[in-house]
Amino acid sequence: MTGNELPGVKRSYLIRAGEGQRLTFGGELATVVARNEDTGGLLEVIFLSGGKGATFPLHRHKAAHESLYVLDGQLELWIDGKRALLSRNDYANIPAGVIHGYQMQSHRTQVLSWSVGSSLAQMYSLLGEPYPGHVHPESGSSEIAAAFFGKAQANSDVEFVSETIYSSAQTLSPVAMPPKGVEAYVIEAGEGERMIAGSDLFAFLAHQGNTSGQFISVTTLGPPGDRIPDHFHEKHTETFFCFEGKMTMWADGKEISFLPGDFLHVPAGTVHSYRIDAPFTRFMGVLAPGLFEPFFRIMCDPYDGYIFPLEPRPFRFDRVMQRLGELDLKLVGDPRPAPATQR
Asked: What is the pLDDT of residues 138-195, one digit of tens each?
């Protein structure tokens, strides 16, 4: 897919870096790459960018559970009566009903937002206007007109609150691991519940317990390796976003060169696989609903490190095969990994 085109139906599709449906509001740019109508109502994915001082006021969502991941710059986040300064690769979990807002603190701040439970794309469409550019407007300090606030509040899942920003509020300290339950929290870059399988380092930023089972978010970090087995899922959708490095992905019979900033939506029933091609590659998977979590816990071992090991650890796919009947995983063809090749 190219430009601002989105499918409007649930199917596999690729959005290249910077593309999507673009809307401007208050000096910011929202680039929508997945809406409920594109994902069967499972999740939405939106890139937010703006200049220093760009602000989104305090608000809450009645049903939407939102997560934020900082891609560039710094973001001051006001959340649940506290404040946190988020930098590149920091993550925030924001359950429905939690009051939050933010101000961008760098001249170019970019944030990845994904949400479940309602439509934030609808909210941005009511707050903003279509925008032809691929970067945020020159001014990051423009205010959103009051009429737009009223329209968004009346016709989307948002309630703006009159409380003042938390300029002197207590700091929300980051956690190293996702907590057990559904609550607001921040995870510092590189942290998360880390696990290893072969040379691939996985980290949970949100597990089922943090999202009422609606989704899980997992980062993967690794060196070049072999193509994982072709497979599909009957009950859940995967979305992939590449942070760094290079990958080759296969989805719905197509081979895709997957580069930083690219987004891929893989709905249930789509045969897919991937291969890491660069010495340091990092990407995120958001899976909705969150029922695929046991796969990682079966295949992986706990890991204390922050970088993948020089010598690969055992790749325990045998454990997956022993419990395949418990997992939403359907293998296509021979699941044994292909012989190692030099790249």
From this structure: 865 567 877 888 899 999 999 999 877 766 679 999 999 999 999 999 999 999 999 9
Residues 204 and 219: their CA atoms lie apart, in Å, by 7
The model's pLDDT over 28-60, given as tens digits with 9 standing for 90+, comes to 999 999 999 999 999 999 999 999 999 999 999
The residue type found at 279 is P
Q: Which helix (H) or strand (E) holds 318?
A: helix 317-322
CA distance 139 to 98: 29
Give the C-alpha separation, 334 to 327, whole Å: 18
This model's pTM is above 0.85: yes
E strand or H helix at 237: strand 237-244
What burial class does residue 64 get, using C-beta atoms within 10 Å of its C-beta: 0-12 exposed, 13-18 middle, 19+ buried? buried
Q: Which of 284, 278, 283, 200 is nearest to 245 (CA)?
A: 278
Q: CA 152, CA 146: separation in Å to the nearest integer? A: 10
CA distances (Å), origin 103, targets 139, 279, 328: 14, 35, 40
Distances (CA, A) of 99 to 56, 183, 298: 12, 12, 36
CATH architecture of 14-185: Sandwich (2.60)
Q: How far apart are CA 309 and CA 343, in angstroms?
A: 19
Torsion angle of alpha carbons 145, 151, 156, 157, nearest 10°? 60
Helix (H) / strand (E) element for 238: namely strand 237-244
To the question of domain 192-331 being in CATH 2.60.120.10, the answer is yes
Q: Do domains 14-185 and 192-331 have the same CATH topology?
A: yes
Q: Hey, where are the domains in the chain?
A: 14-185, 192-331
For residue 325 the two structure tokens come to: 């009947």
Other beta carbons within 10 angstroms of residue 218's beta carbon come to 22
Provide the token pair at 307: 């970088």
Q: Are 67 and 214 in contact (CB under 8 A)?
A: no
